[in-house]
Specification:
The chain has a five-stranded mixed sheet with strand order 2-1-3-4-5, with helices on both faces. It has a single domain, classed as Maf protein (Alpha-Beta Complex). The two termini are 29 Å apart. By secondary structure, the chain is of the alpha/beta class. Helix 2 links the parallel strand 1 and strand 2. Helix 1 packs parallel to helix 6 and helix 2 crosses helix 6. The protein contains six helices and five strands.
Length: 160
């Protein structure tokens, strides 16, 4: 339901969205293209699952990667790069550890979500529970809620 409302809101405002995913492996893009009319606002996405893909495809800088691939810096860089590559009004990113066990010094369920727009960007840390699929699904839901909040906040700020 969140994706449909988000797509409708973006369509009404004439704005667009793109994604850069790691942890979610395309699930976020899939959720965004499920609603009818998604092609009016969803410009595309990149799944950069490996560090190499983040570095070579998304051009995430070594300075960000030095913090670890599951970090605020990488989530921000991924979202900002998707915004640039697709020329969208908003971009989302996901990076994290889905499990079943820890990786790169992070516990399973550690997730960073990034959000970028033409005027601001930010990232949030989530500590999710569940198995691999539950963590990935919860990350998608949280990302959709995050961008929905960003779109609404942006509109309210523009009206002032």
């Amino acid at each position: 339901m969140i994706a449909r409302e988000l797509i409708d809101a973006l369509r009404r405002s004439g704005e667009s969205l793109s994604v850069a995913e790691s942890l979610t492996g395309g699930l976020l893009a899939s959720a965004l293209i499920d609603p009818p009319g998604a092609s009016d606002v969803f410009l595309g996405g990149i799944v950069a699952y490996t560090t190499r893909a983040k570095r070579e495809v998304l051009r995430v800088e070594e300075e960000a990667l030095a913090h670890g691939v599951v970090s605020e810096e990488v989530a921000l860089a991924m979202a900002q790069r998707a915004l640039e590559l697709f020329g969208s009004d908003y971009a989302l990113s996901t990076t994290g550890i889905a499990g079943p066990g820890p990786a790169d010094g992070q516990e399973a369920g550690t997730v960073w979500l990034g959000c970028a727009s033409k005027v601001s960007s930010g990232a949030i840390l989530l500590k999710l529970a569940g198995d691999r699929n539950q963590i990935r699904a919860a990350a998608v839901k949280s990302a959709l809620e995050m961008i929905d909040t960003q779109v609404v906040f942006s509109r309210l700020h523009q009206r002032k």
